[in-house]
Design a protein that fits this description.
Elements lengths: L2 H73 L24 E3 L2 H4 L12 E4 L15 E6 L5 E8 L1 E5 L7 E2 L5 E2 L8 H8 L3 E3 L17 E5 L1 H10 L6
Parallel strand pairs: 3-8
Antiparallel strand pairs: 1-2, 2-5, 3-4, 5-9, 6-7
Length: 241
């Protein structure tokens, strides 16, 4: 092999090495770009999925409300809460605390869970669970916070409240005999109220900030208005006495 040919081989090898080096760099750059793109997609999809879960849970709550009205039309009263986390038939109740628990999903024929696999919760005025229920004022109050953080009433003297404990704190998961979920912090004061409430509940927009009045909040609360219940029973020819 002559010197000229040897030098040519060295030059070719160096060129190939440089090309291989550039290819690895290019591949690394592509991987970085793909990673950034996927990260952006995941960041965008995450909030969308959470909004979907919120919307689905709101729909489930509304379906429970409709089922309660249907039950009242047939039975002239509202049901008590579920017997337990594994038994969805209603249980008789006579006090505010006893009449607050989980939705009686079997009795109502509705889904038991929210979108975070927690059992939907229910609180009913005791007087509305007897047959026949009377048109007495309900005992449930739902509040929110105004721009200054002051609690104000959204609804008062209502027959029943239905709510989801949301993604994070509190609630009862659908596993085993029902596992209570504890609070993930101590700043979510309004959620703590809801978890122990039997008469007054709080509904606010979802907020992850721990510094706002009432703390972070992801409960979803609706209520069965007395006016709606009375109207629907009247339309069905079964007015409350």
């Amino acid at each position: 092999m002559n010197q000229h040919h040897f030098n040519g081989l060295l030059s070719s090898a160096a060129t190939n090495a440089r090309q291989r080096g550039f290819s690895l760099i290019e591949i690394a750059l592509v991987l970085v770009i793909v990673g950034l793109a996927l990260g952006g997609i995941v960041s965008a999809i995450g909030p969308q999925l959470e909004n979907k879960r919120i919307n689905e849970t709101q729909k489930a709550l509304e379906e429970v409300k409709e089922a309660l009205i249907g039950f009242a039309i047939i039975n002239k009263r509202l049901p008590g809460p579920a017997t337990s986390a594994t038994n969805g038939t209603e249980v008789a109740c006579a006090t505010e605390i006893a009449c607050t628990g989980l939705i009686p999903w079997t009795t109502l024929g509705v889904t038991k869970l929210d979108s975070w696999a927690k059992i939907l919760r229910y609180s009913v005025t005791p007087a509305y669970t007897v047959t026949p229920a009377t048109s007495t004022a309900g005992t449930k109050t739902v509040q929110t916070r105004d721009a200054a953080g002051v609690l104000v009433n959204l609804a008062t003297a209502e027959p029943a409240v239905i709510f989801s404990s949301g993604k994070l704190s509190f609630g009862t998961t659908d596993g085993g005999n029902g596992i209570p979920t504890q609070s993930v912090g101590a700043t979510n004061a309004d959620e703590i109220v809801n978890n122990g409430a039997s008469v007054t509940f709080i509904q606010r927009p979802v907020n992850t900030a721990t510094t706002v009045v009432g703390g972070e909040f992801d409960d979803l609360v609706i209520w069965l208005p007395k006016t709606t219940l009375v109207s629907r029973l009247g339309q069905a020819g079964k007015p409350l006495p």
